[in-house]
Write a structure and sequence with these properties.
This protein is an alpha/beta fold. The protein is built from 13 helices and 17 strands. It has helices at about 20-40, 50-55, 60-65, 80-85, 135-140, 150-160, 185-195, 215-225, 240-245, 250-265, 285-295, 325-345, 415-420; strands at about 10-15, 45-50, 70, 90-95, 120, 125, 145, 165-170, 200-205, 230, 270-275, 300-305, 355-360, 370-375, 385-390, 395-405, 410-415. A five-stranded mixed β-barrel has the order 13-14-15-17-16. A hairpin with a 4-residue loop joins strand 16 (about 395-405) and strand 17 (about 410-415). It is globular and about 65 Å long.
Length: about 425
């Protein structure tokens, strides 16, 4: 089989779904129905639906979507090809009744959906945290860490293929290795191995659980520039009362200490977080605490999400559910604040020289190039629009920042004369 991104050409139409929150489920259903229409025009084609939405809704999906030929839960990924080969004329459904246990390894071939110069490395599967708003443990199962040796094999393959930026991802990256035994957190060991076994210049970490970001990790990042000084730490809230209701075992005081420690040990480090508004019982005082915290600490990148009341989560049973219009108003208020804070922060970069990984022609206009600084993660943060200079996608270049916007920067690639004057 070969892959095509044009569904009209495909004999096999495959949708990998998310079931985490209702908007993602709705998006998945829309994608499936769009492919149902395409399948109807091509006799003999097959439609496969995999992933978390199948895991969450089970046989209910098979009843509502009879046009789908094969449903596979999250443990079914390795079976796709074999199941397609044996597929009969009757719809089929595979869903493990026990907790999901699948864990990918380096023997499974990868096709990068990212540009060839950057890649994600999934280091764990599942999660053993028990946040009251989150379905991940029930959908993906408990924490399962890949062996360091296996991760390094995959990382070496990616490095040999020309990857310049490797982003480590997990539901909770700082929990890596905790399932190997008590006191067996292994993130530092993994980072050390990546530095020794690859020449990848940018190694980025996503999804660090707040109270597992320890001094040893901060010192390690400070000592090794290839580990990007970019800390993605989802805080979810800052009100102690709401954090307790979310089953997030930390307080505002401990969060403030963590941020001060990061900035003291690694001056210039970038911070990203997410906040959730509209959690059951949240009131204006709680929202004001969030707003004051944002003013005081000026986090570089902030995402604001509205609470989604999901059946099966403990929070769904809590009293004082927040009306949707109130959630949206609180989100808009905080996003407007962050826009102004981000603009002020970005304006301080005007005139500075930043290392930028070039992505290629801008998504906004063919007249510009586009790239990212060390402090901008792909797809979730802003970018740098490059107005002049010569380079290729995947190049790491020096860019002088000439203009700032709330989420994006504008700059020019330094020429050889500029670089000499900088020296």
């Amino acid at each position: 089989m070969s892959i095509t991104d044009n569904p009209e050409e495909a004999d096999i139409l495959l949708v990998n779904t998310c079931g985490f929150i209702q908007p993602a489920v709705e998006e998945g259903i829309e994608a499936i129905l769009a492919l149902v229409a395409i399948k109807g025009k091509k006799p003999g084609s097959k439609l496969v639906v995999t992933g978390c939405m199948v895991q969450r809704y089970g046989l209910q999906l098979a009843k509502e979507l009879p046009e789908v030929d094969l449903f596979l839960g999250v443990d079914g990924v390795p079976e796709v090809a074999a199941r397609l080969a044996d597929l009969t004329s009757e719809p089929e459904f595979t869903l493990s009744e026990s907790a999901p246990s699948y864990l990918m390894d380096s023997l499974i071939p990868r096709t990068l959906s990212t540009p060839p110069f950057r890649a994600y490395l999934k280091v764990t599967e599942g999660c053993s945290n028990r946040c009251t708003y989150c379905l991940i443990p029930s959908l993906r199962g408990p924490l399962r860490s890949r062996p360091i040796e296996d991760l390094l094999i995959e990382a070496r393959l990616l490095a040999d293929s020309g990857v310049k930026e490797l982003t480590l991802v997990a539901q909770d990256l700082t929990a890596y290795g905790m399932d190997f035994g008590p006191g067996r957190e292994r993130l530092l060991d993994l980072l050390q191995g990546l530095l020794q076994e690859t020449n990848i210049p940018w190694i980025r970490m996503l999804y660090l659980y707040p109270m597992r970001v320890k001094d040893a990790l901060l010192d390690f990042v400070a000592a090794y520039p290839r580990i990007l000084p970019y800390f993605d730490i989802p805080l979810q809230h800052i009100s102690d009362r709401i954090l307790q209701a979310m089953n997030r075992p930390y307080t505002r005081v401990s969060v403030e200490k963590l941020i001060r420690d990061i900035r003291a040990r690694i001056p210039g480090a970038a911070l990203r977080t997410t906040f959730m508004v509209g959690f059951p019982g949240e009131n204006e005082t709680d929202v004001n605490q969030l707003s004051d915290f944002m003013d005081e600490f000026k986090i570089d990148h902030v995402g604001i999400f509205t609470y989604s009341n999901e059946e099966g989560c403990a929070a769904a049973e809590l009293a004082d559910q927040c009306p949707e219009e109130v959630k949206l108003a609180r989100k808009a208020l905080l996003m407007e604040k962050q826009s102004q804070l981000a603009l002020t922060s970005n304006q301080q970069l005007i005139g500075s020289i930043q290392e930028v990984l070039v992505e290629g022609t801008s998504r906004e206009t063919e007249l510009l190039l586009e790239g990212r600084t060390r402090f901008q993660a792909a797809d979730i943060d802003g970018c740098v629009y490059i107005t002049s200079g010569f380079c290729n996608p995947g190049d790491l270049v020096k860019v002088r920042i000439t203009e700032a916007h709330p989420y994006d920067l504008v700059g020019e690639i330094l020429g050889s004369e500029d670089e000499q004057s900088e020296k």
